[in-house]
Task: structure prediction
Amino acid sequence: MSTNTANPLAGEFELAMDGPLTAYWLAILRVLTGWWFFHSGVTKLLEGGLAYSYGPIYMQGMEGTALGPIPVWMGNNLAWLIAPGVPLFETLIGLAVMAGVLTRLAAFGGAFFMVLFWTGNAGFGHGLVNSDLMGLLLFVTVMILAAGRYYGLDAVIEKMQFVQQRPKLRYLLG
Amino acid sequence: MTHTKTAIDRAAMAVSGGLILLGVVVLGLIETLAGQPYGAAPLTNDAGEVVAMPLIDPNLRTGLVILGLVVLLLWGLYKLATPMAGGNTETAAVETTAD
Result:
């Protein structure tokens, strides 16, 4: 915490991760980002269960993107995984990010999804920076800042002896 | 809390940030200065006919951004694979948020 007597607000508004506003806002950001994916996943589950057939079709149509033939190949060959995986992983990623459990790993999954959405939707009419890229940046931000440590369960999990003895787990937690 | 950055850390940040900024901002500025379409998609008239194409292929620009993110990912994997400098340097941040 800052002890800058010249600026009494420095301690409250500074960008240090232990600053009260930074931790508060990171937690808000994380929960809303998680809810976004959770809602998207759970509504797919409610409507169609684990048979989200649009997933493979969407990827089969991703021809001519910066990802080359990868998504089309996935759509053609991994439909067995994509159809149940989209609603399931969206739901799990959302839950994990909201609760702050395995936050970095979950946010990586969210970023992977958003790369596919950003390039696949290709809604670039108003430029490259659109809501899909913003979603991608949110997940990368949650991952880089280890947002699960702020009012998230990862703050508790990281204090467990199991994690203390394996500090590299914090690259997946946090 | 003092973190020292190695040459690899600095290179990863420079390359990753450079690629992302090149794809979005630098090429976006060139695209804008080149005239319509100011976005990164073809411009169509009311009949749906394409009347102008972007100067820079959006796949190139999205590819640069994705490459920048891949560099970040590889940097993270490198940090995961190499020994941690100074042990539990991040514990302090965890504890200070509890109060």
Observations:
- Strands of chain B lie at 43-44, 50-52.
- The longest helix of chain B spans residues 7-33.
- Chain B has three helices and two strands.
- Chain B touches chain A at residues 23-24, 28, 37-41, 58-63, 65-66, 69, 72-73, 76, 79-80, 84, 87-88, 90-91, 93-94, 96-98 (CB under 8 Å).
